[in-house]
Task: structure prediction
Amino acid sequence: MGIVVQKYGGSSVADAAGVKRVAQRIVNTKKAGHQVVVVVSAMGDTTDELIDLANEVSPLPPARELDMLLTAGERISMAVLAMAIQNLGHEARSFTGSQAGVITDAEHGKAKIIDVTPGRIEAAIGEDAIAIVAGFQGVSQTTKDITTLGRGGSDTTAVALAVALKADVCEIYSDVDGIFTADPRIEPRARKVPRISYEETLEMAAQGAKILHLRCVEYARRYDMPIHVRSSFSEKEGTWVVKAADVAGVVSEEKEAHMEAAIITGVAHDRSQAKITVVGVPDKPGEAAAIFRAVADAQINIDMIVQNISEAKTGLTDISFTLPQGEGQTAMTALDRVRERIGFESLQYDDSVGKVSIVGAGMSSAPGISARFFEALSEAGVNIEMISTSEIRVSVVVAEAQIEAAVNAAHAAFELGSDEIEAVVYGGTGR
Ligand code: ASP
Ligand code: MG
Result:
């Protein structure tokens, strides 16, 4: 049988008992006849604790040293996992990202994988050993320094290795049974989605659903690597993330069996948004360009933009946009600096907003989806501040305090809920 890459997240290996449980699972996979390569995250909240520690000794930890520090978390988990497997009588060898051939660019804290040369991993599994690889880390081709891929990056390590090793599947284990129609922590009736396309998963992840690292899904889509998202705490089948044609095949089978195919796949929410309103912008060519140039030059990624119609008597308009909360201060400073030159009146900042999105490939051929979504929100008394859409998504910005009500309303309006409580959150602090 073929190669299976399994990735275990921090909550699956939070303590010695977790490590032993995961070790047993890995051994079972090996015994079933597979060659197993495991990617592991740091134990529990180790990464957060290491970041806290760095911040205690330095207000602005140097990026190179921060990466060196953070990669220690995965070094601990990979070594103890290898020990636990050996204790079960199976050969296991741990490898750092660098040893596993994960080559990146030199961007500390958000390095991109540019090549994977897994010679040592192939050698290990060729000798019938289980290979354990530290997730989230690599080595820069140019500087030879140790890099990290960004928070949650172990998913990407796993997919990249699976592609390089031509594995049959990349299994991603966490503390929930798969991808749900909404976050089970706020929607208890959320249902597990059996199959979802890469595109829908990308939209869900980009809209705040903490399911998979965005880049890992992009990577999987590019190389058509199936991902099986499942829980390490149960034996249940999880969610398969596959190409759209494979999802469509299953959906048409369901139609033949007279089952209703869902138009909406899920509801995602994101609490980490902030909104900036540029007040009193002169309504003439070049103003929006100048505003967003200033924001772009500060390296800030914006999301939604709304420009109001200008008032006839003043000739002034307001422009609002959303961005990640963490970048709010930088954006405000950058805009304030160009206020006089651009000639707008003032700036407003609001970080108590959030985003709620419905995602589904079926919506591109179904009319009335936005109307149904907005009606549900209005019945729940939720005020919409901004709207944006893509081919397979509708997103709204609402007050942070209304996120939960909005998710529940959308979930009910598209009949996504199950009759029984399906979702179990097995562990993790959600930190
Ligand atoms: N340990 C890293 C983090 O917490 C990477 C990961 O978990 O994927 O972000
Ligand atoms: Mg983690």
Observations:
- The first strand starts at residue 3 and ends at 8.
